[in-house]
Amino acid sequence: MSENPEASITQEQRQAYIDKYGLTPAEAGHEMLIQMIEDHFAEGLETEVEPFPETDREFGALLDQLRPLSADQLREKLVISGWLLQPYGEDQMRCQECMYYLVHKRWCDLPELDLPAKPEWWCRLWRI
Ligand code: SF4
Fold first, then answer.
1. pTM of the entire structure?
2. CA distances from 1 to 23, 77, 103 (A)
3. Which residue owns the Cα nearest ligand 1 atom 6?
4. Helix ranges, the chain (H)
5. Strand-strand pairing, 107-108 and 101-102
6. Which residues, 6 or more positions from 32, have their beta carbon under 8 angstroms from its beta carbon?
7. How far is the CA of 51 from the centre of ligand 1 (A)?
8. Closest by Cα among 115, 113, 111 to 80
C-alpha cells in the first residue's frame, strides 16, 4: 500500500487505463507507454511548458513535485514536466540533445520521469 495517498491514481482513472489498454502505466512497456503518452495528447492534454526553470532552485522545485508521483501518474508527470511531442523554442530543443536522454533506449533517464521518449519530443526539464 502506498504511504502517500496522493501518489496514486483514482480507481476511475485506473479502470479507464485498463479498459483502453488492458493495463496501467506502471505495468506498461516501452511501446505501450509511448502509445499512452501520444493518446493523452491526442485527447487534448495541455502541459505546463512555462515557466522554464532557469535556476537550479527552480529545476529542483519541479523535481520535488514529480518525485512523489507513482508510475501510474503518467498524466501528472506529463503536465508538471511540460512535456511536448515536438521540439520547443527558438533553438528547437528536443530530447535527442538532452543530457538525460538515452538515445539507444529512446528513454528519458531522469529518475523523476523515467519514461520512454521520442528524440523529437521535449520537456522543460531539458538540460545539456
Ligand atoms: S528531461 Fe525532458 S527533454 Fe530531457 S530527455 Fe527527459 S523528457 Fe526529454
1. 0.94
2. 18, 21, 34
3. 108
4. 11-21, 30-42, 56-66, 74-81
5. antiparallel
6. 21, 23
7. 16
8. 113
3-state secondary structure of 107: strand
Give the pLDDT confidence of 35-89 residue by residue, as tens digits.
999 999 999 999 999 999 999 999 999 999 999 999 999 999 999 999 999 999 9
Q: Is 98 in the pocket of ligand 1 (CB under 6 A)?
A: yes
Ligand 1 close to Cβ of residue 123 (< 6 A): yes
The mean pLDDT value of the chain amounts to 94
Ligand 1 pocket test: which of 92, 101, 127 has the largest number of ligand atoms within 8 Å of its C-beta?
101
Give strand pairing partners of 41. none
41 near 127, Cβ under 8 Å?
A: no
Phi, psi of 29 (to 5 degrees): -90, -175
- For 88-116, give one letter per residue: b (16+ CB within 10 A) or e: beeeebbbebbebbeeeebbbebebbebb
CA within 13 Å, CB half, 111 = 5
